[in-house]
Each structure stands twice: as C-alpha cells, then as structure tokens.
C-alpha cells in the first residue's frame, strides 16, 4: 500500500513513516516566492521577493516581512493567509511574556512557542498543517540570531538560509558568499545578489522587501528608496569586483561604497571619475559610468545577431571592446593555464553585458586567428557558465575546431547545437563543410548538403564558397 493511500490523513503515518500532508505543506512552501536570511557579525538581514498578482493591486497593502516584537522580525515563503495567523499568535505570545516578566521575550523562546503551534497542527484532527516556512530574525542578549521554522514544527538556528522556489540556487550562492565576519551592510548586499540569482525581470525597490536588525536591537523594514540605494551599491560592487579581478586591488582602493557623500553644490555639473568608472550624480549619490552603452552606440550589441561567414565581424562592424571586454581579452592572451582562466571567468556575473563582452572577445580572437583561445572561451560558455549559448557561440567554436583540423570536435559541436534546440544558420553549415573539407572528408562534406535540404535550407553562394575554399585548403582541389 503506497503513501498515496494516506495522503488525506493528517494523523496517520504512511508505511514509509511519513505524514503525507506535511510533505504537501512543504510543496506549498517550495512553490512560494524566494525568501532568505543572513546572520552577520553585528545584525541579521531577511529578504524576499514581492511580486504582485496584478498591476492593479496596491503594493503598499502587500507586506511579506512583519515585526513580531521591536527586536524580532519574520519573513515567510508559502501561503500568505497562514502566515498572518502565525504572526497574530506569535505577537500574542510575546505580549503575554512581556506582561508577566516585564521584559522582551528572548528570540529562542518565541521561536520555540511558534514552532509548538505549528507542530500541534500536525497531530490534531480536523485541521491541516500550516503551508508556510518562516525565517525569524532577532537580536537579544545572546546576540544576533536567525531561525528557520518549517510546517512540521521543526526549527534550527542558521547562519544563512533560504526557502521558496529558488531555494537550491539561493543556498548554493550563500554557501559560496557567506563569511562569519560579514558586516550588516555586506549581508544586505549578499541578500540582494542572492535574490538576483533567480529573479525574473528587473529587480527594484518595489518588488523585493528587506528587513534588518542591528546592534540597536530595533527591527525595521527598509523603504523602497533605501533598497534602491543598496541596489546602486551592489552594481558598483560588481563593477569593482570585475576591475579587481583584471586590474588588481589598487583600482578600487579609494572607493568606499558604504560611505554616503552628499553633493556640496546640490546640483549642477556631474563630477565623473575617470579612474574607477564612478561618478557622483546631482543628488550626491555614487553611480557607475557605463562605458558599455558608449560602445553600443558605436557598434551595437552582438547578442542575437547574425554572423557573416568569413568576415570575423557582426553586421559589418568590427567589435569595439568595452573596458571589461578588453581586460578579458588581455587576460586570455597572456594567461596560458586553462583552469586559471576558467576560474576567473566563473567570478563574472551572468548578465547580458558580460555576455556581450565575452562574445566580442571571441570574435576579436577570431580576427587574430587565435583558435585555441576561442575554443577555451566557447567551451567555458558551453560547459561551465550559466549562460545559455546561442548560434554565434556554436559557430565560433565550429570555426576554431575546423581551423585546427579537429573535425570530430566540430561534428560534436554541431550535434550539441541541435540538442540545445538552436537553429543552424548557413554559417553553421558553411563552417562544418569547411572543417570536413580541410580534413579531406569529402563524403561527410557532401552529406552536409543533404542535411541542409533536410531542414529546408537551400545552399547559398556562401556555403558553396566555403566548400570550394575547404577543398583548396585541404589539398583536394587545386586553385587555378
């Protein structure tokens, strides 16, 4: 008799020792919006996504982070109505403790009482488990504390934790970023970066909530304006990290992003920093000077565009390197150890801007005929990065393998392109033809024409030119 026979019974264990309704409650938590908490050396941060079901909903009425006492706050993932019930019960328990003992309830005790309520709803008839998990942040005489409480009533103290639909990626990111000596501001930055890992759309102060408590032992929810300031700092920190990787620590040595500077003249001309890419706007806030936008005005982004075979450039324009792209290019040209380059590339944020920079670098390497470096870059995109490669990446790799007479690798790349459901272009077939011809595999080269007909793509002059060029370079056909 399987567990499904017991799925509607709360108080009966299944043969495998499970209370299946609790499993269903955990599923409700797992389908909720991502929430996380981080315990810093001098405080605690809790944060969550706040996506409204409709643009007509008043966003001020949706609050996913609540204070239980002046020094304790809570966030949830799962069912909002269940959360409101638990908040009301927890506040009542805290009030009773304060009335009896004339002091604030300790964080651990409030968590224990809340967990007891949740556990009671797993063994009583006529009720169901709460479909929420909670992250409770507090600061008392024992210092900063972070607890997670699950529908079963179990609770544990955490240094950092996450829950919701993106829990796996969020916890992996936190494991890499967390340090015991992390300050409160650093924890806020890390929380934002963690939410951005699986966030759909543009993150802003209106679609996330952040609550903090520091050494003053006063829990508060940040305003959208405060969150926007932290988001701006995160952008600068990411930019600074990239420059640190490629240029060394001296570049950002004078940029303290926690320091809020007010403009002395209250407006007027903007003072730009040519040294580190930062400037102070008319409101006296640090902003990043986006050199990439200037590059796009000159040449446009490479992402999603076609690639003219044999030209080495996109849409007739040679790639113009952004500062970050140029630093990546210099690194690849100087560094010879593959693992070292991949390790550095792994630290780059997975953004559209970085994607454009990396593809620009690969196209520039093609112009320089540095086929080994192209293979290194494109294999990192395919096998190590979180980017979803498009056809231009596969075409660059096909070309590099063909030039190095690695026809089997070129063939495997073509098959991977099909498995990834990318649409082959005439460039794809032209490069595959050339790879076969240079290796003297005329039968396979001619089979490519059949492959093109199979997908309803008639061979163009570009394809025939690649075929003839490959025959000449492969020594099969003499050039007259």
Automatic annotation (TrEMBL):
The keyword Manganese does not apply. The keyword Nucleus applies. CDD domains: proteasome_alpha_type_2 (cd03750). It holds the Pfam family Proteasome_A_N. PANTHER family: PROTEASOME SUBUNIT ALPHA/BETA. Belongs to the peptidase T1A family. Component of the 20S core complex of the 26S proteasome. The 26S proteasome is composed of a core protease (CP), known as the 20S proteasome, capped at one or both ends by the 19S regulatory particle (RP/PA700). The 20S proteasome core is composed of 28 subunits that are arranged in four stacked rings, resulting in a barrel-shaped structure. The two end rings are each formed by seven alpha subunits, and the two central rings are each formed by seven beta subunits. The catalytic chamber with the active sites is on the inside of the barrel. This is Proteasome alpha-type subunits domain-containing protein. It comes from Prunus yedoensis var. nudiflora.
């Amino acid at each position: 008799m399987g567990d499904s026979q017991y799925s509607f019974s709360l108080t009966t264990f299944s043969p495998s020792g499970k209370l299946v309704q609790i499993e269903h409650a955990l599923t409700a938590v797992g389908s909720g919006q991502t929430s996380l908490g981080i315990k810093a050396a001098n405080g605690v941060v809790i944060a969550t996504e706040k996506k409204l079901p409709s643009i007509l909903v008043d966003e001020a009425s949706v609050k996913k982070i609540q204070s239980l006492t002046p020094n304790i706050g809570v966030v949830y993932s799962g069912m909002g109505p269940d959360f409101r019930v638990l908040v009301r019960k927890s506040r009542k328990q805290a009030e009773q403790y304060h009335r009896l003992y004339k002091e604030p309830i300790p964080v651990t005790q409030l968590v224990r009482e809340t967990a007891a309520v949740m556990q009671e709803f797993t063994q009583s008839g006529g009720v169901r488990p709460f479909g929420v998990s909670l992250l409770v942040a507090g600061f008392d005489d024992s210092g900063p504390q972070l607890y997670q409480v699950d529908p079963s009533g179990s609770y544990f103290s955490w240094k950092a934790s996450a829950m919701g639909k993106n829990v796996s990626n969020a916890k992996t990111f936190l494991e890499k970023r967390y340090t015991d000596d992390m300050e409160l501001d650093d924890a806020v930055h890390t929380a934002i970066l963690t939410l951005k890992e699986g966030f759909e759309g543009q993150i802003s102060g209106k679609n996330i909530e952040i609550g903090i408590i520091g050494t003053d032992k006063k829990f508060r929810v940040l305003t959208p304006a405060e969150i926007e300031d932290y988001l701006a700092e995160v952008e600068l920190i990411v930019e600074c990290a990239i420059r640190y990787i490629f240029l060394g620590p001296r570049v950002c040595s004078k940029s303290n992003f926690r320091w809020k500077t007010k403009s002395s003249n209250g407006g007027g001309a903007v003072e730009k920093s040519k040294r580190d890419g930062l400037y102070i706007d008319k409101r006296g806030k640090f902003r990043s000077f986006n050199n990439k936008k200037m590059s796009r005005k000159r040449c446009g982004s490479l992402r999603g565009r076609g690639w003219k075979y044999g030209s080495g450039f996109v849409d007739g324009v040679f790639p113009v390197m952004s500062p970050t792209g140029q630093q990546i290019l210099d690194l690849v040209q100087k560094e010879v150890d593959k693992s070292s380059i991949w390790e550095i590339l792994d630290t780059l944020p997975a953004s559209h801007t970085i994607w454009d920079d990396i593809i620009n670098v690969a196209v520039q390497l093609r112009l320089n005929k540095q086929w080994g470096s192209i293979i290194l870059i494109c294999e990192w995109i395919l096998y190590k990065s979180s980017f979803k490669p498009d056809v231009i990446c596969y075409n660059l790799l096909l070309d590099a393998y063909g030039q190095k007479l690695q026809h089997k690798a070129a063939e495997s790349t073509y098959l991977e392109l099909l498995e990834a459901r990318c649409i082959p272009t005439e460039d794809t077939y032209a490069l595959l033809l050339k790879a076969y011809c240079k290796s003297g595999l005329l039968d396979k080269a001619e089979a490519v024409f059949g492959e093109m007909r199979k997908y309803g793509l008639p061979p163009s002059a570009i394809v025939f030119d690649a075929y003839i060029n490959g025959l000449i370079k492969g020594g099969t056909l003499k050039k007259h």
